[in-house]
Amino acid sequence: MYSPIDSMGKVSLMMDLISQRQRAIGSNIANVDTPGYVRKDINFQTYLGSMNSPLETKLSEKLGPSGVLEEREYEEINPAQELIAMQENSLLYSMATRRMSNIITQMKTVINVGK
């Protein structure tokens, strides 16, 4: 059975993970010239893949293997790739905020119909 409260929690978790990834990408860009800096990233598949929704499953397959901050073995940071990742992350955040807005609109409709 569909529950807007459950959906709200899922979208909230997704938004938290997206914001953590944004911080990691920003840190990578800020440290592009720092010798010995280890590139960091956030992946979502473990968290989103367990949410039993086609949207979350597609996102988890696209975004990676786990929802934890991971330090990758030393690799040169490519600023262009980091900026692309930041844009993708921005689109995901926009999508998540729209979904949250739709959930709130649905809840308002239910409340108003019940009056």
Account of the protein in words:
The protein is mainly α. The chain has one domain (4-113). The chain contains 4 helices and 2 strands. It has helices spanning 4-30, 45-49, 54-63, 79-113, and strands at residues 40-42, 69-71. The protein has a two-stranded antiparallel ribbon. The two termini are 23 Å apart.
Mean pLDDT metric = 77
Cα radius of gyration in angstroms: 17 Å
Q: What is the overall silhouette?
A: elongated
Which structural class best describes the helix and strand composition? mainly alpha
Low-confidence stretches: none
Distance between the termini: 23 Å
Query: What's the number of extended β-strand segments?
Result: 2
Q: Within the largest sheet, what's the order of strands?
A: 1-2
SSE pattern, N- to C-terminal: HEHHEH
- What's the helical proportion of residues? 55-70%
Proportion of residues in β-strands: 5-15%
Q: How would you summarize what this structure contains?
A:
This protein has 115 residues and is mainly alpha-helical. 67% of the residues lie in helices and 5% in strands.
Task: Label this structure with key terms.
115 residues, mainly alpha, two-stranded antiparallel ribbon, 2 strands, 67% helix, elongated
Blueprint of the fold:
Blueprint: H1 4-30, E1 40-42, H2 45-49, H3 54-63, E2 69-71, H4 79-113
Antiparallel strand pairs: 1-2
